[in-house]
Amino acid sequence: MENRDSYLKSERAQEWREKLRKSKNNKERTLQERVKMPEADPQLRIQSYVEVNSGLSAEQAQKEASRCIDCPNPTCITGCPVEINIPKFIKRIEEGEFLEAAKVLKETSSLPAVCGRVCPQEKQCEANCFYTQKLKKEPVAIGYLERFAADYERESGKISVPEIQEKNGIKVACIGSGPAGLTFAGEMAKKGYDVTVFEALHEIGGVLKYGIPEFRLPNEIVDVEIEGLKKMGVKFETNFIVGKTAPIEDLKEEGFKAFFAGSGAGLPRFMNIPGENYIGILSSNEYLTRINLMHAADKNTDTPVVSGKNVVVVGGGNTAMDSVRTAKRLGADRAIIVYRRSMEEMPARVEEIEHAKEEGVEFMTLSNPIEYFANEKGQVNKVKIQKMELGEPDASGRRRPVPVEGAEEIIDVDTVVVAVGVSPNPIVPDSLPELEVTSWGTIKVEEDTLQSSIPEMYAGGDIVRGGATVILAMGDGRKAAQSMDVYLKNK
Amino acid sequence: MFKIVDKEFFSENVVRLSIEAPRIAKARRAGHFVIVKIGEKGERFPLTIAGADREKGTITLVVQKVGVSSRKLAALEVGEYITDLVGPLGQATHIENKGTILACGGGVGVAPLLPIVEAYKKAGNRVITVIAARSKDLIILEDQIKQFSDELIVMTDDGSYGKKGLVTEGMEEAIAREKIDEAMIIGPAVMMKFAALTTKKYNIPTLASLNTIMVDGTGMCGACRITVGGKTKFVCVDGPEFDAHQVDFDEMLLRLNGYKDLEKKADSDYLKSSEEKGR
Ligand SMILES: Cc1cc2nc3c(=O)[nH]c(=O)nc-3n(C[C@H](O)[C@H](O)[C@H](O)COP(=O)(O)OP(=O)(O)OC[C@H]3O[C@@H](n4cnc5c(N)ncnc54)[C@H](O)[C@@H]3O)c2cc1C
Ligand code: FES
């Protein structure tokens, strides 16, 4: 930590930073209003999958960057799971050195264009910004600026190709191609390893492709990252389920010396309430997969999707918001979030909740479905909703929702999307009886190294944490690469 | 991409394909299936692996043309490629020498029944197979099934071939005659429902191999879920075989109908467009 502090200090002391700090006084900086992200019009955007946030202009970005006062003790960094040197990249933007800003991001983050779009900044860096903490004002728009720098670099066509150490010929395997796997692969390729990524689906990208919709994270952005990895020599094998298509043993025989499991938490949870298997009730994974991975909304594809006029989405996370906003785009008249706690507890990114409201999504909070009804064809047509209130705090510190005796409501529905959480993918653990897992089914790892109970097997991302975030998955991919490198070198 | 190396028509609508997939050929066992996707815009759909040749590194699929995707697959020629193929998926059939097996296949269910009949036979069982369809032209794989059955009973609804009657009548015939140790049923949900009721009457342990709608085939979506013994199960990972006496076939029937209208429309659109192309 001390190292890091002195590193940050010396960076901050550099001439260009000092000059920039002196170019404007803090009063002037703090009087400026936070930039507004330009957005597609809500009425128009719900008729397409166009990205909602259109990104800052260079001018807007530089102006916003000038709000940052380049604190001597940058608390924002402590809020970032991968400790991006936030003031440094922001000051590069203020200076107009956008490519340099992107380089700063890439010192610690492999997917800045993705994280700039999907990180819960309001709970991380921006929550710890001097503006939020001390001035009680709106924080510097760190997320927007991150996105700006990353997009600028990509669109400039001048993507900096990372330095690759001399190839060492050691084969390592990565299981899964979500953010954890992609990051791991990139880091190992840089260190000179011969990396193959095995992916069960026919597409690379994990949740970034099959889960998060185009209107929030265009596929093109993920594809650029994948292309970059290919240029670095990373190999990809799609349609390959490690543990089914071939056991780990076979891969070892083929020369793979170590493994990273980034196999995610892809299993949908249901609520086990009466009627949940009626037609028209599906998991958010199924709903989003049909649209995002199989492109069911495109008439030229073979995959169908049934989405009704009255859609209820159960849950309050990002997955729920993505589903309910997808329902709007598929033509729902009413798209309703049913969530058992209140607005404040909703785990989704604040921006997504705001966007959902603009798009006409209704919110039924303190409400929990308890039973579904169907017509004679088994098609769901009604849902019984139990009203809730908040009681004593539970283990997580959040107040536990408890049913309000006798307060029930029945509403008409024709599609229900269940987005109440996910469980770890059991395929890798099932295929390796000696691999230790928790009672939740997540893979047990050493906290510092991410090494599992099998020495040559590392793991990270949602398969270790349960449903978490992109940035944490990415951070894990990096950490695992570092410790696997040490392990293989000492072997 | 997975290359088709051999192709043989069993009848106008049923085709056998051998496909280069060395890893799957090595890993698969009877009862496993694969998910297939044809072309960039194709859907993902499951097919039972009918057989495999480890040496050659190929697997066999038996496909009956029933909808857009199976037609597209059946239209591929030797030398052409299947875009995506993943597996082996599901739990393998627990095959052992049980004594006498009653294997029942209805309609499209006969194709996935074939490898199971073969495996039972090779494990030393006496195998009595009943295959059934609406009429003569819908009876498929008769010769292939016969090869691995000690006895074959063919039933048609209209009596145009074999005996006239439903699959259950053929089953009753065998059950009345000899002791059956286990039954295996594969076919349309209605057929399986009544076949299961039949064996239940006689307390014959029975497995049903279920063909629900699937998307990923790896447990990620829940499209394939059904109720077995009051509990929700995912056919792609917990199955495809279940205790037939515990399966809620009525619910499964309803769920299968969920996309029927869309599928029918897609199929007729596809047929129209391929006729226009002169195929
Ligand atoms: C709809 C949705 C919206 C979300 N929104 C946000 C957001 O806004 N912000 C945020 O930070 N997080 C969000 N998340 C969470 C975030 O996407 C995940 O935390 C993150 O993707 C986890 O990354 P991962 O690499 O661990 O796993 P995943 O992205 O799940 O990738 C795992 C991959 O491994 C593959 N795989 C599994 N088993 C095998 C095997 N045996 N062999 C080969 N391949 C295998 C899977 O097919 C999958 O592609 C969202 C999640 C969802 C579902
Ligand atoms: S097909 Fe998706 S879970 Fe079974």
- Class by SSE composition of chain B: alpha/beta
CATH architecture of the largest domain in chain B: 3-Layer(aba) Sandwich
Distance between the termini of chain B: 24 Å
DSSP strand content of chain A: 15-25%
Shape of chain A: globular
CATH superfamily of the largest domain in chain B: Nucleotide-binding domain of ferredoxin-NADP reductase (FNR) module
CATH class descriptor of the largest domain in chain B: Alpha Beta
* CATH architectural group of the largest domain in chain A: 3-Layer(bba) Sandwich
- What fold name stands as the CATH topology of the largest domain in chain B? Rossmann fold
**Number of helical segments of chain B?**
9
Cofactor (chain B): [2Fe-2S] cluster; FAD
Domain FAD-binding FR-type (chain B): 1-95
Binding site for FAD (chain B): 62-64
Protein name (chain B): Sulfide/dihydroorotate dehydrogenase-like FAD/NAD-binding protein
Report on this model:
Chain A: Its EC number is 1.4.1.13. Chain A: Residues 1-18 have a biased composition (Basic and acidic residues). Chain A: Residues 171-477 form the FAD/NAD(P)-binding domain. The complex is a heterodimer of chains A (491) and B (279). Chain A has 21 helices and 15 strands. Chain A is an alpha/beta fold and 491 residues long. Chain A has three domains: 2-156, Fumarate Reductase Iron-sulfur Protein, Chain B, domain 2; 171-265 and 424-490, FAD/NAD(P)-binding domain; 268-418, FAD/NAD(P)-binding domain (3-Layer(bba) Sandwich). In chain A, strands 3-2-1-4-15 form a five-stranded parallel beta sheet. In chain A, strands 6-13-7-8-9 form a five-stranded parallel beta sheet. In chain A, strands 10-11-12 form a three-stranded antiparallel beta sheet, with no helix packed on it. In chain A, β1, α12 and β2 form a beta-alpha-beta unit. Chain A is globular. Chain B is an alpha/beta fold and 279 residues long. In chain B, the strands form three sheets. Chain B has a seven-stranded antiparallel beta sheet with strand order 6-1-2-5-4-3-7, with helices on both faces. In chain B, α5 (167-177) packs parallel to α6 and α6 (189-201) packs antiparallel against α8. The two termini of chain B are 24 Å apart. The interface between A and B is large, with 42 and 39 residues. Bound molecules: flavin-adenine dinucleotide and FE2/S2 (inorganic) cluster.
